[in-house]
Amino acid sequence: MVSKTEEAEVNRLESQADNGGGGEWEYLSLVRKLKLRRPDKVLKHGLTILNDPKKRSSLGHDEWTLYEQVAIAAMDCHCLDVAQDCIKVLQKKFPESKRVGRLEAMLLEAKGSWAEAEKAYLSLLEDNPLDQVILKRRVALTKAQGDISGAIQRLSEYLEVFMADHEAWRELAEIYVSLQMYKQAAFCYEELILSQPMIPLYHLAYADVLYTLGGLENLQTAKKYYASTIDLTGGKNNRALFGVCLCTFAVAQLTKGRYKEDKESPELQSLAAAALEKDYKLRAPSKLSLLGSTLRSLKLSS
Amino acid sequence: MAVGFAVGVLGVLILSHAAYSTIQYRTLLKITEEEFSGPPINVVFELLLGLVLCMWAALAVPGKVVSLPSNLDFMIFNHRGKAFPLECTLKSK
């Protein structure tokens, strides 16, 4: 996931390029490296380079990578003619390439010709039936057609073979959450946290799913995962801070009247509340009173 | 931002005026003891106008939406962006 410095750098390059200050290639390379999805900017700045023969020739071999990046951005912005032209150029240069074949199939997907895209992917799979990228594109194709259960099935089959593919686990978890199948989503997030324990996004999503499921045990576990998210992000993630406050409140609601074991100190929630107030004072002082009243209703602020 | 807000306020005012007109119309019908089949046609137009203004304001006023880190392997292309294609061309070699 993108760090604050990298995000700041990308935004700086983007505003520089937007204002005509050059640096488009650096911006596009950084977007490609960080796997960001900013199709309108990529398309605009990519075409600035590609339409200028001097800038294009200065890229050398990277020109073809740029054509690919611009083709995908064009498909995302629904400028299918631009995408078609880029792919034609790539086809002329690399006639029998699988990578270009994949781009052609993606273009068919973007046009909405689902059956032809499926045929294209199947023919690409004939030569190499275990091509991960093509198999994943097939899942995306099923999802784009609206067949969510079909997408789940294909994705599960894919994961039986490629169990270590964390992008696929993440996609499956998000699909389950969209269908409100939270237990299955929790399982997927558990797999993700096991394989990549240092990524705060998964801890946060897992905590969200557990909080949604509800029940005393789930709430206590959710609070632990919100706390680990705060730990991993250095206290900067507001959603996790809110999560801690809400979990504490929900647990208190559930254990009202019962004997409070009090093994967890109340410091965590008051520290989270204090951190939230500090951040709001810094970034959104007009909303500080709103935050104060919310925290007071959760009995966390004085 | 301020324009969107003003449009929203205008939309709400139009909707409330339409509601008031409908209530007046019903009172009139009660006096003449006729059936209330539906609001008069000009109130319907007013409702539609109020709806359009409020929806426009609702879309224009809130701030920028930040999305989660993207999962590029599974990206799909039939999203709402299809309705607003950018005007670009690639000049051929």
UniProtKB/TrEMBL annotation, chain A:
Span list, region Disordered: 1-20
One Gene Ontology cellular component annotation held by this UniProt entry: EMC complex
Compartments, record wording: Endoplasmic reticulum membrane
Main location (coarse class): endoplasmic reticulum
Role: Part of the endoplasmic reticulum membrane protein complex (EMC) that enables the energy-independent insertion into endoplasmic reticulum membranes of newly synthesized membrane proteins.
Family label: Belongs to the EMC2 family.
Protein name (record): ER membrane protein complex subunit 2
Taxonomic classification: Eukaryota, Viridiplantae, Streptophyta, Embryophyta, Tracheophyta
Automatic annotation (TrEMBL), chain B:
Pfam families: MMgT (PF10270)
Compartment(s) where it occurs, according to its Swiss-Prot or TrEMBL record: Endoplasmic reticulum membrane
Main localization (coarse): endoplasmic reticulum
Molecular function, one GO term: inorganic cation transmembrane transporter activity
Membrane topology, record value: Multi-pass membrane protein
Any one of the GO CC terms: Golgi apparatus
PANTHER family per UniProt: ER MEMBRANE PROTEIN COMPLEX SUBUNIT 5 (PTHR21181:SF7), PTHR21181
Protein name, UniProt field: Membrane magnesium transporter
Organism (species): Escallonia herrerae
Source species taxonomy: Eukaryota, Viridiplantae, Streptophyta, Embryophyta, Tracheophyta
